[in-house]
Hints:
alpha/beta, 10 helices
Amino acid sequence: MNQLIRVMLTDDHAVVRSGLGRLLEQNEGIRIVGEAESGEQAYQTFPEINPDVLVMDMSMPGMGGLEAMRRILNRWPQARVIMFSMHENATFAIQSMTSGALGYVAKSGHAEDLVKAVREVAQGRSFLSSDMAQKVALQSLTGGDNPAQKLTSREFEVFRLLAEGKMVEEIALSLNIGHKTVANYQTSLKQKLGISSPVDLVRLALKYGVISEH
């Protein structure tokens, strides 16, 4: 008898959570044992629920998935996290995996990918869908100035928010850090990425698909 895999879902949309729950529970040996609607809530309830696998939406209001994962892994290094993201590009996958996620699944991918990811990650193995793995391999070969390969998860989150045009105050509030800390990150981003202006920052973010042209 296979051991039951206990899964916790974190997504700010209730509809997405219930859809994912149904999808996963159709598979033998997978059970949803908890849900959270924000990174903050995931961090607070993680120790009570203590799931085998945590499926985390990457882009949520407030503390995003990356930041929540960073905090969870800091406190509970044994946590096994799958980043579930609407971003299909390698930059986000690389950043997630280097920040400690064991799996990265694009929301637009096959439903089967998430099921496979849960089974693999529950065993402590990493999972990337084949098309995602291909993109990551290609970008690793070519992406000399790819921000994902140079930045910590916190720096990457600040980089993404700055590129989206958020003000220092907004970033400080959503990541729950001081204004001065955000300003320090801005400085280190400029140095690490070799950029001198907000325009350069946006250009780099567009180039690697960190933000998309609306």
